[in-house]
Every structure is written in C-alpha cells, then in structure tokens.
Amino acid sequence: MKKIFLRLFAFAIIIAFTIKLSSLVNAQSPAFKVLVVASLAKDHVRMMDSAQPFFEKMAMENNFSLDFTKDTAVINDSNLARYDVFIQLHLAPFDMSYSQQAALQKFIESGKGWVGIHAAGLTGRQFKDSTHIYWQWFEDCMGGIVYSPHPKFQEGVLVIEDHNHPATKNLPAKFAIADEWYEFNKSPRGNVRVLASADESTYTQNKPMGDHPMIWTNEKYARMIYICPGHDPSVLRNNDYVTLLHDAILWAASPATVK
Q1: pLDDT tens, residue by residue, 150-199
Q2: Helix 239-253 crosses helix 45-61 at what angle (to 10 degrees)?
Q3: Residue 123's Cα: distance from chain center in Å?
C-alpha cells in the first residue's frame, strides 16, 4: 500500500511539474508575429536606423516577435502566411513588384493586420511612367486619395477625432508633432473612418485641404490603419506618438471582433 502511495505521489509531482513547465513555455511564447518592411529611400535612412531598435524593444516588452528588413523579396504569399501584422514603414507602394503588391493585397483582404506609416501612403500615378501598371486597389484601400507635394518639415498639432477606436483611445485630445504634413488631392473622409486630423492653423501648408485627415482606417478591411506622421526619428521620442504606434500594432494583431 505504501509503495502504491509513493508511486501515486511521484506521479502527481511529475504531472504538476509538467503543467508548470508547460505554462512557463506558453507564457514566454510570442503572442503574435510582426513583419516590418522598411524603405530604402535616402531621405528615410535616419528614421529607418532609429526605427529598428525601437520596434525590437517594443516587441520584447510586449511579448510579440518581430522581423525587420529592407528586402521586399520577403513580401510573398508563403512568407506573409507566417505573420499576423505587416508594418509598411515608409515603403512606397510603387517600390514593390506586381507580385509583391498582389501578395500584400491578399494579406490585407484576408483580415490580417496592416500598419502603413508615412510614405506608405504615396498614392498616385505620378511616380511611374505610363508603361507601369498602376495599383489602383491600394489607392482605393487608402480611401481614394492621391498624394500631393508636402510642405516643409515643421511642428504642428494633431487633433484626435475618435477616442472610441483602440488605436487612439489612449491619446489626448490633441498633441504637437513635427512632420512633413502630407497633403492629398482631397479628404478620404466618407470612404474611411477618420481617427485624427491636422490642425492646419498650427503650421504653414503647401495647399490647405481644410478637412485634413492624418490617421484613418478603412473598415472594408478588418485590420488596416494608416498613420501619416512619421518622417523623422524625433517622433519615436514623442510619448503620444509611441502610444499610438503601440496601440495600433496591438489592435492590428487582435481578433476581428475587436472594434
């Protein structure tokens, strides 16, 4: 009887240890996987160099895995299937091949997360000659807007319009930020859910838009968000901007039921 008891006791210890070990392994497993594909453009070098350690630190502190690259060859169906979120960091849509554009489109349409930052929003046919097949789908995804020349780099104020969205719920009513303040041929409002806009009275415009959204989502797609500010690495030291990126990435990785 004593031997049976000892065996059962030893078995119970083994089971408890196995459960504890399993819980520790699961606790350390990444919650989701993020791929950052960054721009090779010369005027974005400083931002790219600062962004890599910034995103790697965020991933470590928030228990998600992150791969950072400037090689667009990773944008293909088989590789993208490994990730939950794609961050298009200043990478212009026209700097991807047709097959890469198709793979990213499929990724977004499947409900995966897409976070486009700054030059990711360079829509329009003006960047390529007439022999180039234009990616109209991406312009439509962005709310049907076409990029226009931006004013000089300067400080201005972002006004948060929607505090009900997970990406902007933790932001103040407004905050100052230095950027290029991209302008477009028209406002995307009506085609997208606007989360924040530029206060054009706080900086000098190239061509005033009046209604000037700067952060938005297209709710035709489960997890798409465009963040227009982000040209200079100084934004990575702006606590409000850091909060925005953090919450946008977590939202992009969350289930489609989270609105």
Answers
A1: 999 999 999 999 999 999 999 999 999 999 999 999 999 999 999 999 99
A2: 60
A3: 17
Residue 222, amino acid? A
Euclidean distance between CA atoms 73 and 185, whole angstroms:
31
Q: What are phi and psi of 68, to 5 degrees?
A: -120, 125
pLDDT for position 13: 52
Map residue 161 onto helix, strand or coil: coil
* Confidence band, pLDDT 50/70/90 cuts, at residue 20: very low
**Hey, what's the torsion of the CAs at 188, 189, 190, 194, to 10 degrees?**
120
Closest CA to 123 of 132, 136, 106: 136
Residue 149's pLDDT is what? 86
Q: How far apart are CA 6 and CA 11, in angstroms?
A: 8
Averaged pLDDT of the chain? 91
Pinpoint the alpha helices (H) of the chain: 2-28, 45-61, 77-80, 98-109, 136-141, 239-253
- Token pair recorded at residue 67: 């791969």
Q: Which two structure tokens, joined as six digits, stand for 33?
A: 């996987």
Per the CB < 8 A criterion, the answer to whether 235 and 229 are in contact is: yes
Which residues fall within 8 angstroms of residue 137, CB to CB, at 6 or more apart? 105
- Evaluate if residue 61 carries a pLDDT over 70: yes
Which has the closest alpha carbon to 191: 172, 210, 211? 211
**Helix-, strand-, coil-residue percentages of the chain, each rounded to 5:** 40, 20, 40
Q: Is 236 exposed, middle or buried (0-12, 13-18, 19+ CB in 10 A)?
A: middle
Residues in the chain: 259
pTM: 0.89
